[in-house]
Design a protein that fits this description.
Elements (H helix, E strand, L loop, with lengths): L5 H19 L7 H31 L6 H28 L13 H11 L4 H11 L5 H7 L2 H15 L6 H24 L2 H16 L3 H30 L6 H7 L1 H10 L2 H14 L5 H14 L2 H17 L6 H16 L7 H13 L6 H6 L1 H26 L7
Helix pairs in contact: 1-9, 2-7, 2-8, 2-9, 3-10, 3-14, 3-15, 3-16, 3-19, 5-16, 10-15, 10-19, 12-13, 12-19, 13-14, 13-19, 14-19, 15-16, 15-17, 15-19, 16-17
Length: about 400
């Protein structure tokens, strides 16, 4: 299917998988190894990808000359909005329960999975949370990488990236360059593996349709609506409130009009990085933010501010848990929140970041990865929506920071 865009290839593979599952019935299970190979390839790259991307990102942020008052305010704003987005998603997915009672062909191992997770997260909710916090610091980071302990890996990489900027030259520069080179290699490898996503989707969805019928897509529709509802609440309620309060009376409607071209571009391209030049132009020309603020806040936002992606990852992980019939405890949901927040920072520039980061969250909370294939089937439209929210949050951040710096705006 050379020449056809990847999202269309995935859609075609999805339709073919549905046909194969309906027509062939249980014989379609012969295609299951295709999905298994794709999932194994994702698991293969996730640790080196996380290590190189987070170390590189933190090292670049920590080494920026503009870090200081402006940098701290920007970082605090982005972390806060991402956390709000995750909590909105967590609230909705618990209220709506899109995966509760869903028949996605995932329930065979529910009993064993529940028992394993209960053993891992036993005790009171607060004791569980305390245990999670204590386990976030690895006693042996290399062992954590071998065993795939994602929270420990992320914490170590954040610290390692920060202290790269604290060592004298030429050592700091050499180390940063080494991880930057490794990150570029991992991005190329990730690109290569993602090219096989249509084949993986075909194998995974054919199996699900063969075992559960086409009713799986009805349940999936509720999941999509839950994600979209969460994105709308964050974009139309949370961020406008922050504009009004922290932006000291900035009109969300006027700012939306100022950003219309950039938001439409983000929706059509599904890339906050590709939209960045237009985002900067709209913020400066239409909203009146100075270049001093926009040139620092917006590139940083395109790197670490992934509100829409973080919300999506939280809802998707909870949906898969519900589909397995696993009732996540407060401590386990705390893991989902923390991991979604941390990996959304490290997701920048990675092709199909939501998919790759979803693997991290599922591994962190102890859930199997088979549900990823079905989520990928509707990922394109959700990718467009969450990227638009990412860019909208970036632009709101630029306006808020500009106002705290005493600038007079047009919105």
């Amino acid at each position: 299917m050379k020449g056809i865009k990847l999202h269309w290839q995935i859609l075609i593979a999805l339709l073919l998988a549905v046909v194969a599952g309906v027509v062939l019935g249980e014989k379609a299970l012969l295609f299951e190894p295709l999905g298994t190979l794709f999932l194994k390839a994702l698991k293969m790259i996730i640790v080196p990808l996380i290590v190189t991307s987070i170390v590189t990102g933190v090292a670049n942020i920590g080494g920026a000359e503009s870090i200081g008052r402006l940098g701290l305010k920007t970082f605090f704003y982005y972390i806060t909005t991402s956390l709000f987005a995750i909590l909105v998603g967590l609230m909705l997915v618990n209220l709506i329960g899109p995966g509760v009672g869903a028949d996605l062909g995932l329930k065979a191992s529910t009993e064993e999975l529940t028992r394993t997770m209960q053993e891992h997260y036993s005790g009171s909710p607060w004791a569980t949370i305390l245990g999670i916090v204590l386990r976030m610091v690895p006693t042996n980071p290399f062992r954590a990488m071998v065993e795939g302990e994602m929270l420990q890996i992320i914490v170590f990489c954040i610290l390692f990236g920060y202290f790269i900027t604290r060592v004298p030259e030429p050592y700091g520069g050499r180390m940063a360059g080494l991880f930057e080179a490794g990150f570029q290699v991992m991005m190329k490898l990730t690109h290569f593996i993602i090219l096989f996503a249509p084949i993986g989707v075909f194998g995974l969805v054919a199996k699900m349709v063969a075992t559960s019928g086409v009713g799986v897509f009805r349940d999936l529709g509720v999941y999509v609506l839950t994600v979209v509802a969460g994105l709308l609440i964050h974009a139309c309620v949370t961020l406008p409130c922050l504009l009004l309060v922290l932006g000291r009376g900035v009109s969300a409607v006027k700012h939306f009009r100022a950003m219309a071209a950039a938001l439409l571009t983000a929706f059509s391209t599904s890339s906050s990085s590709a939209t960045l030049p237009l985002t900067m132009e709209s913020v400066e020309e239409n909203a009146g933010v100075s270049n001093k603020v926009s040139s620092f806040v917006l590139p940083l936002g395109a790197t670490i501010n992934m509100d829409g992606t973080a919300l999506y990852e939280c809802v998707a992980a909870m949906f898969i848990a519900q589909a397995y019939g696993v009732d996540l405890s407060l401590g386990q949901q705390f893991i989902v929140v923390v991991t979604a927040l941390l990996v959304s920072i490290g997701a920048a520039g990675i092709p199909m970041a939501g998919l790759v980061m979803m693997v991290v969250i599922l591994k962190a909370v102890g859930l199997p990865l088979e549900g990823v294939g079905l989520i990928l089937a509707v990922d394109r439209i959700l990718d467009m929506c969450r990227t638009t929210v990412n860019v909208w949050s970036d632009s709101c951040g630029a306006v808020v920071i500009a106002r705290t710096e005493g600038e007079t705006l047009k919105v």
